[in-house]
Amino acid sequence: MELGQCFEHAYKTRLLLHLVAATHLGYAVCYDFLYARLPQLAVELRLEAPIGGKLKYLTFLCGLLQFFYYLLALVYDVLRARRLRLLRDFLLASYVVPLALTVSLTFWTLCAIGRESIYPGLLDLIYPAWLNQTLHSFVVLYALLELCLTQHRYPPRTRGLAGLGLFMAAYLAWMHFIWLRTGIWVYPFLGALSATVRLLFLALIVGLSFVFYLLGERINAVLWPRSCGLRRWSSSE
C-alpha cells in the first residue's frame, strides 16, 4: 500500500509540474507574440529586420518548443499512449534540455559581459522582467525538474544529436537568410564581429548545445539507471 501511495504521489507531482509549466510557458509565449513588440520605428531605423517576426528569435522558438513539450507531457500523463512517450522522450533529449541550457547560458553570459550591447535597458519597457526570466531562466528550472521527476528513455545518441544538429543548422540557415535578404542581423551585436569571430562564436554555441545534450543524457542515466543500457529507447519497444 505504501508503494502504491508513493507511485501515486510521484504521478501527481509530475502532473502538477507539467500543468504549471505548460500554463506558465504558454502564457509567456502568447504574451511575447502579442504584446512584446518593438515599435514600427525600429524597423524603419533598421534596428530590427522587417521579416520573420518573432520566429527569427531563438528565445521565442525555444519557449514555443518548451510549451509544446509540457503540453504533450500533460496529454501523455492522461492518455498513456506509447507513441506519445516516444515523441516526448525524443523532444526532451534533443531539444528541451539542450536548448533551454544553451539559450539561458548564452543570454546571461552575454548580458554579464555587456548588457547594453545585448539587451539594452530600454527593452525593459517592452519585455517585462517576468517574461525575460520565464524565457531565459524558468525554462532551465522546468527542464531540470522534468529530468528529476520523470523517467525518460534517451534515444540512441546518434539519433538524438542528429535531431539537435538539424535544428541548429536550420536556425543558423534561417538567421543568415534574413541577413542576406535585409542586411540586418537578427542579433545586432553579430554585425560588430568580424567574419572569423562571428563564425567561431556560432560554432561555440552549437558546440555548447551538444555538450548540454550529453549532460542531460548523463543526468538521466544517473537518476534513472533502469532507463539506460539494454532498456534504452528504441522504435521497436
TrEMBL record:
Transmembrane segments: 15-37, 57-78, 90-110, 130-149, 161-179, 185-216
Subcellular location as annotated: Endomembrane system
Keyword Acetylation carried by entry: no
Database matches in InterPro entries: ADTRP_AIG1 (IPR006838)
GO CC list: endomembrane system; membrane
Chief location bin: membrane
Pfam name, any one: Far-17a_AIG1
Family: Belongs to the AIG1 family.
Protein's recorded name: Androgen-induced gene 1 protein
The species this protein was found in: Drosophila madeirensis
